[in-house]
Amino acid sequence: MPQPTVGKVAQSVSDTVEMYYAVNTRRGCVDAESKNYNFQANVDDKSCQGPATNLSFGGVFQQCFQISPDAEPLCQALAQKNPDTGDYSCRSPYVSTLLRSEVRQEGYSQYECHDVAYTCYLVFRCHRKVCGNNYYMRTARVNTYWCADKEEAPENSGYLFGGIYGPSLVNPITKTKSCPLYFTPVKFLSEGLMICVSNDYEMATAYSVPFGGLFSCESVNQLAGNKRRCPAGFSQHLATVSDGCEILYCVQSGLFTEGQLLPIHLPPFTLPPLIGTTGGSMVAVMSEGGRSWVRVEHSKTWIEVKPENVVNFVRQLQQDSGNMTAGSKAGLTIGIICLLALLAVGGMLLVRRKRGVKRRKTYEQIDGEAQTSETAVLLPEEEAHIEA
């Protein structure tokens, strides 16, 4: 194995091991004598001391930007306005913080027909309609923000926090994949997570927990001095791993610690590339990290194409391939064979016809000579008598 390849494999293994330990690190208070003790924690985060302060939460919102021109359905499903403002913004005095920026891809197929011109019968241009289910990828960028007030907020301000749940995550408050009573689910990130918020202080307070902010591999926690940790008196909990990036949220220490130990998170921690084929498996398309590659069937070479040009590039390949498809090659071969056969048969007939004409002419000459011999040929004796 080449040395550069060995180095790349070793680096990949090292990165995977580091990611495994990072994802399964649970920071919190490890002092069993503290009221903030978190038996789920395996690393101390100095949250054993200090009460949880009243930190206000101003909601979340996320914007979606199309990378490929066909990504509008994807953005319609992922864009989320802040319920507090009805827009992609935070209400004053809250400040927005970018929690995560991710590229989201979605594969889809659609039945398409288009005209393909190709060479047929040696010199002619023929047309045929090609139909099939073509596979494409739509790509968009999703930016998720959350709103926080860096200062200690007054009572009954902002949103109450009611937990997070998703397709593979149970809400620790309800023990189900749902929000508590009087809470509203709001889209959070791009993998189906929901964050529960409420401003019904009278009815929903009993089902809420003190909230200490959010942070990720790309973002710091405003409520913890702009550091990647929770404030004093709060413990961090893993919301999800977004394509290799941890998303964590903070609640008051001592909460969410009952029950059994949380399961170990196993690889993979990144999304696999999307690979699809067009109708007839003629073209393969792969997209990863905002980049797209196209490969023609039976070829080992991938051609990098801009995401917005994938559709036109695939159609051009289909048109080029139509110039000499397997069917046209077979038709061309059969046409040549038939032409040669016709020429051979025609040649044989021509030769036979010439021979027949020659034989008929020879027979007529012999017949004429026979008739002449009966009337004009003299015997030797008669010839001598005449001469005498």
UniProtKB/TrEMBL annotation:
<keyword id="KW-1134">Transmembrane beta strand</keyword>
<dbReference type="InterPro" id="IPR039707">
    <property type="entry name" value="MPEG1"/>
</dbReference>
<dbReference type="GO" id="GO:0016020">
    <property type="term" value="C:membrane"/>
</dbReference>
<keyword id="KW-0812">Transmembrane</keyword>
<keyword id="KW-0399">Innate immunity</keyword>
<dbReference type="GO" id="GO:0045087">
    <property type="term" value="P:innate immune response"/>
</dbReference>
<keyword id="KW-0325">Glycoprotein</keyword>
<keyword id="KW-0391">Immunity</keyword>
<feature type="transmembrane region" description="Helical">
    <location>
        <begin position="330"/>
        <end position="351"/>
    </location>
</feature>
<keyword id="KW-0732">Signal</keyword>
<keyword id="KW-0472">Membrane</keyword>
<dbReference type="GO" id="GO:0042742">
    <property type="term" value="P:defense response to bacterium"/>
</dbReference>
<keyword id="KW-1015">Disulfide bond</keyword>
<keyword id="KW-1133">Transmembrane helix</keyword>
<protein>
    <submittedName>
        <fullName>Macrophage-expressed gene 1 protein</fullName>
    </submittedName>
</protein>
